[in-house]
Amino acid sequence: MELYLNKTSPYARVARICAIEKQLGNDVNLIWVDPWADDKALLNANPNGKIPVLVTNEGEAISESLLIASYLDGLSSTNSLLRTPDYTDVLALSGLSQGLTDAAFTTVINRKHFGKESDSTVLGVRRQNAITRCLQRLEDMVNTDVMRSDINLGQIITAVALSYIDFRLPELQWGSDQPLLADWAARFSERGSVKETAFA
Ligand SMILES: N[C@@H](CCC(=O)N[C@@H](CS)C(=O)NCC(=O)O)C(=O)O
Q1: Are residues 70 and 91 in the same domain?
Q2: Where is each GST N-terminal domain found (predicted)?
């Protein structure tokens, strides 16, 4: 298999962590690309021009990190990431934290293209509010089974979203308002898959 990715994409990092946690790391050839540079091979695999894209051994190109995670989860029985006893809770946590990633990522991209003033637009303010609410919801969930159980997709997306905020929006300093979540994230960051895929 081939995984198109870069070192700063939270979505690509989720896909890569899933592959590692499923013990499929050695079966995935990493193709490093700049998705903003109209890379020909990437556009061929995914006309949307976005990473991640996973090209299966049969040549099928799967985009969207959640779909890639679902595909990888079905390939090996190691670490069930989705089909756990908490299945619906895993889906709920995954959606919540994917939304957090979307709000953070869109904030970063809008700042890059339209300046920091983009935070003050109607949409910018909605994004900031969404980030604040999602962080608090996650803080309230730290002691629930889905956050405390063996690794699952929701935990992976949550950990990557928080790490992405630290990487790109460090001024948010969310750890002071969400101390339980900060402890949870620190523990999760000890995993080999998380260390190996650090943003750079
Ligand atoms: N919903 C997609 C989002 C993917 C995405 O937005 N990737 C960014 C990099 S973090 C990208 O490739 N952007 C290039 C572009 O928008 O042209 C997923 O979950 O995979």
Answers
A1: no
A2: 1-80
Instruction: Give the residues surrounding ligand 1 with Cβ less than 6 Å away.
Output: 9, 11, 35-36, 49-52, 64-66, 105
Residues 93, 60 share a domain: no
Position 196 in a domain = no
Give distance in angstroms: CA of 65 to centre of ligand 1: 9
Query: Domain for residue 51, yes or no?
Result: yes
In the chain, how many H helices and how many E strands? 9, 4
Among candidate residues 36, 55, 75, the one where a domain is terminated: 75
Query: Any residues with CB less than 8 A from the CB of 167 and at least 6 apart, and which?
Result: 8, 199
One domain for residues 140 and 177:
yes
Residue 100 — pLDDT band, cuts 50, 70, 90?
very high
Shortest-distance Cα residue to atom 1 of ligand 1: 64
The pLDDT of residue 6: 98
Residue 175 lies in domain: 87-191
Contacts of 23 (CB under 8 A, 6+ apart): 76, 78, 79
| Centroid of ligand 1 to alpha carbon of 35 (angstroms) | 8
Tell me the CA–centroid distance for residue 105 and ligand 1, in Å. 9
What is the distance in A from the centroid of ligand 1 to the CA of 85? 30
pLDDT, position 142: 98
Given 75, 98, 121, the domain boundary residue is 75
